[in-house]
Every structure is written in C-alpha cells, then in structure tokens.
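Q: Hi! First time doing this. I have a protein sequence and I read that you can turn it into a structure. Is that right? Here it is:
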Amino acid sequence: MYCLFVDLDGVLVDFDSGVQAITGLPPHEQSPRAMWPQLARARGFYENLDWLADGRELWMHVRSLEPTILTGLPLGRWAEPQKRAWCNRELGGDIPVITCMSRDKHSRAREAAPEDAVPVLIDDRLSLKEKFEGVGGMFIHYSDMESTVARLNSLDGPFVPAAI
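A: Yes, that's right. Below is the predicted 3D structure, encoded as structure tokens:
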C-alpha cells in the first residue's frame, strides 16, 4: 500500500521561469540572498506561477491516486498562503496540502501517511532522496512526466490518502 506526495515547484509548477521573470536570472545563476527578498516582495509570486510544460498532464495521471501536495517553503510567512491559493485554484479545494521546510519533507510525509503505507514522493530535488528513503519512503526523482508515470505504474498495490 502506498501514499503519494507530490512536490509543486519544478514538478507541477514552473518555479524557474517565475524566478527569471521577477529577477531577470534563473535561480541557479544567482545567490539565494539576492533572489529570495525579490520574490518575497513580488506580489503573489507563488500564486501566479504557471504550470510546468507537462505539469497539468502529470497531474491528470496522479489525480486518481489520492495525492497530497508536499511543498517546501522559504523562510518567512509570505509563501504558504500563496501556494495554498495556487493549489486551491488549479487543483481544487479538496486536495490536501502540506507545507514545510524542504529538509523536513521526509518526516512530514511519514507522519501523514497511514502507518501501513509506504510514502512515495515525486520531487525534482534529488538531495531529498536519502532522507526520504531513510524513513522507509520511496523517492521518485522527477525529470520528466513519462518516466515518472512509468515508475508509478510499476508499483504494485493500492494508493491510500494521507491522514491529515
């Protein structure tokens, strides 16, 4: 039995293009100290991000698996309401959303998944894999929709919703 968690930025939502539209540079070409204050000042930054090119199609594939959005937050209180507003508008108000620091995704997923279910995380940040697998979870590194869907389809067993 599995419990699916899906990241937003870089999986469903085009964070990089949003950053470049605000700052003039992609995230990897600037320091976090320069980037984050600009994003925090940008009205509705997260709420107004576009879908990733194949994000909507990926969502259509995973929607029936009762996923929970598990999305990381920057420092401060500005991002959470924006991310929740995006999810409510684009995914629907019935989709559970967990926000946390990215470094805590493994523990938040383990807490939210039913005890007898394996938490499965689709995320573009490979740096989260070791900790996620360390709590008995399965990490699916998102690089493209086709390989992600193929990996999900290879899992044998039902998916259950998170208990949040």
